[in-house]
Amino acid sequence: MKLEGSRAVVTGGSRGLGLGVVEALVSQGAKVCVVARDAAALQAVKARLGVEAISADITDATAARTILADVRPDILILNAGAIPAEGPIDQLSWEDFARPWDTDVRGGFHWLQAALNLPLAPGSRVLVGSSGAARQGSPQSGGYAGAKRMLWLMAKYADQVSGKRGLGLLIQAILPLQMVAGTGVGEAGARAYGRAGGVEPSAILAGYPSMPPRAYGEQVAKILADPQYDRALALGLRGDTGLTTLEEKAAA
Questions:
Q1: Ordered domains of the chain (ranges, CATH)
Q2: Which pTM was predicted?
Q3: Which of 23, 29, 135, 240 makes a 20 to 30 Å CA pair with 95?
Q4: Per-residue model confidence as pLDDT tens digits over 161-185
């Protein structure tokens, strides 16, 4: 995909990994629309990067349909999500445990459904943010790992629907395979595992390779631009090893 001149919608693009993706896409000439709830953060990103900004809740099905119908993006990146609970299963309320399901999974459901039913134009790309926790679990973050595994599966389901209906959409899951400093999820994870292990959060983060949000964004841009990744259903991203295919699409 040629990124220059393409239209992209990035949910949760006002901070953290989402902001890193927005910065990378803008640097390559994409016209980006950032969707997030925090109006002040959105305005700051708009002023600095010249992007379009829309304040909306990702769990609002009507907002998902309206934004995609108005913007008609070539690229949709579903990055927004809740900060997971911190603690083991025996110490969390159900509300805290289910937070990623109520936000991340519900939002992913509405936006994927909107992309399929609008539908987006043939050749459009949809990247669904998951997590390395979807592979091995995350016992100190409640329902986070299960929710991220569900998003991975939802990307697979949606890609299958696109194929059966002949929509021509390319839908993939992207998984950061490490905690990332300076992000809400990364900092929460570091606190939770630091507390469980009796060490400072900084010690937890120090165990992972450096991958600032902008570097993550550059890897996402590479997925979009390099056709060698088109057959991947799920891709892992790390600061040291770069991109890794975790699951291939089924043969047509």
A1: 7-248 (3.40.50.720)
A2: 0.97
A3: 135
A4: 999 999 999 999 999 999 999 999 9
